[in-house]
Design brief:
Layout (H helix, E strand, L loop, with lengths): L3 E9 L5 E10 L4 E5 L6 H9 L6 E6 L2 E2 L10 E4 L11 H6 L9 H14 L15 H13 L5 E5 L7 H18 L2 E6 L2 H7 L2 E6 L2 E6 L1 H6 L4 H6 L6 E8 L2 E4 L2 E4 L2 H4 L8 E6 L4 E2 L8 E11 L3 E7 L20 E6 L9 E6 L5 E3 L14
Parallel strand pairs: 3-8, 3-9, 6-7, 7-8
Antiparallel strand pairs: 1-2, 1-4, 4-5, 9-10, 11-12, 11-14, 12-13, 14-20, 15-19, 16-17, 16-19, 17-18
Length: about 375
């Protein structure tokens, strides 16, 4: 009943700006789908078109199999949870949660029972007589969720609902959202710019850039098998290291360093391109001896001590590091990032030797930005 289908959906503003370009997407019933991307990528506009808060220039939107593109928000049977919670300040928590029931032909007792049931679900029963100003950010978020849940909609639409919370509370609320979704199994489309939220919450993730879908996949598949340079650089923290290289007759050159591409990766090549962009996740650069024996001499530029691990940004002589990939999170210029043990002791200027796990390499066509590897079989 609650599946959402978008076919060739486009949003073009009056000034000609295309915010969403030919978006085709199917959200399965009960799925938790994340829309992620940098500011201005079109993710919130897409969500607002599903909700009916933004008109669609072209395309079709179906919710539960019913075309809703021309229906007002009130007739789409969805509930939206906003970044600013949108609670009524003069109403109690009880009245805020029960507000969607005001037009239903229910007795006062029935409404109260439904409100209490939702409050129990969200563990906010003791807050029912308070007003929003007396609540913490996390409590307000629960009230906003309660107001959405009590409608029993076909789908929840969430626009960066945790962005106003502090870091610790965001982690707590992510866990609570997941538990709530597992209990309710309501189709959910969730917009965020925070890739940690995207990777931990989503059954699948849609990566958007400049209004265009870059890739739709599970979080793990996005991380391990990015479809293009944008996804490779955007997903992951620290970002994937991107280095210019050459691939000739199965031999991969990274500046003065050379190694044979493993047979299983060679078998997945979709094109023969000599000039390539080599992608290496920070964990693919290790202090231990790499199985293929490729070692890179490096100098530490800066380290970040993160408790269980240390992230080191290092410079490798002769390595042509790409720092100019659009929308890639900023790193220390000319460096590559590596994850080391939390017990690692090193400081700026120290030398370190890193092994390269060549079986984890990603290759991209510098002309198109597309991955040169066919995805592995599931």
């Amino acid at each position: 009943m609650g599946a959402i289908d978008l076919e060739h959906v486009t949003k073009r503003f009056d000034d000609g700006t295309v915010a969403v370009d030919d978006l085709t997407l199917s959200v399965e019933e009960g799925e938790f789908m994340i829309l992620v991307g940098p500011s201005g990528c079109g993710k919130t506009t897409a969500l607002r078109m599903i909700a009916g808060l933004e008109e669609t220039s072209e395309g079709s939107i179906r919710i539960g199999g019913r075309e809703v593109k021309d229906l007002p928000p009130s007739r789409r049977d969805v509930a939206m949870v906003f970044q600013n919670y949108a609670l009524y300040p003069h109403m109690t928590v009880r009245d805020n949660i029960g507000f969607p029931l005001r037009k239903q032909k229910l007795s006062k007792r029935e409404k109260e029972e439904q409100v209490r049931e939702v409050a129990r679900l969200l563990a906010i029963e003791e807050l029912l007589d308070r007003k929003p100003r007396a609540l913490s950010g996390g409590q307000r978020q629960r009230v906003a969720m309660g107001r959405a849940i009590i409608r029993h909609p076909q789908a929840f639409l969430m626009d960066e609902p945790l962005s106003n919370l502090d870091a610790k509370l965001r982690v707590q609320m992510r866990v609570e959202l997941l538990e709530l979704h597992r209990r309710l199994r309501v189709t959910t489309v969730y917009v965020t710019h925070d890739q940690t939220e995207a990777m931990t919450l989503g059954d699948r993730v849609v990566v958007l850039n400049r209004g265009v879908v870059q890739q739709v996949a599970t979080p793990q598949h996005l991380y391990l098998h990015p479809a293009n340079l944008f996804v490779a650089g955007f997903i992951g923290s620290p970002a994937m290291n991107l280095v210019r290289g050459r691939l000739v007759d199965g031999e991969l050159s990274l500046g003065q360093y050379r190694v044979l591409l493993p047979a299983e990766l060679s078998a997945r090549l979709t094109a023969r391109v000599e000039d390539v962009v080599v992608g290496l996740r920070p964990e693919a650069l290790v202090q231990d001896e790499a199985p293929d024996g490729l070692r890179l001499p490096a100098e530490i530029v800066v380290t970040e001590q993160l408790g269980p691990e240390t992230v080191a940004f290092v410079r490798v002589p002769g390595l042509d590091v790409m720092d100019d990939v659009a929308d890639r999170p900023a790193t220390v210029a000319g460096t590559v990032a590596t994850r080391l043990e939390g017990s690692f002791v090193g400081q700026a200027g120290d030398g370190i030797e890193l092994g390269v796990c060549v079986d984890r390499i990603q290759l991209f066509d510098p002309a198109t930005g597309l991955s040169l590897f066919a995805p592995p079989h599931a």
